[in-house]
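Morning, I've got a small favour to ask if you have a moment. You're getting the sequence in one-letter code plus the fold written as tokens. Thanks so much in advance, here it is:

===
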Amino acid sequence: MFKTEIVIILVLVALIIVLAGYHYIFHIYEIDYRINPEYLYADYSSEVTIEVIPVNSLGFRAPFRNPKTKISVEEGKDLVEIVRYDKDESVLVLRSLGQTGIVTVRIVSEYSIFPSVIEFKIIPASAEATLPEVKRVT
């Protein structure tokens, strides 16, 4: 009877560890967005990548999980072209069409209540005219 109690306790402990592991490691707690780079140049080769990242309760990327999202360009459709849109990995790559302006991207996820809106600028190719000067204080 003593061995039976040990086996039951070990099974219960293993079950608790599995359930806690699923809840804290594999469950998607929130959605994060990675934009690289934060702006585009107004030439025909500049690209921006928008990636949707599922985050678990510990603050890390949730392993083996892909967020189900719908990504659409709301404003500035004439300023960019879609190079790649991977629905499974939730990655959108946009390329500039040579005009300056602001592009707005809307992301709807089943893990968020409201849609997220990402806005980035397309700046002139000679960005020295638009970027602020860096002043050194010695």
About this structure: The chain is about 20% helix and 40% strand. The CA atoms of residues 27 and 56 lie 6 Å apart. The beta strands are 30-36, 39-41, 47-55, 69-75, 80-86, 91-96, 101-109, 116-123. The mean pLDDT is 85.
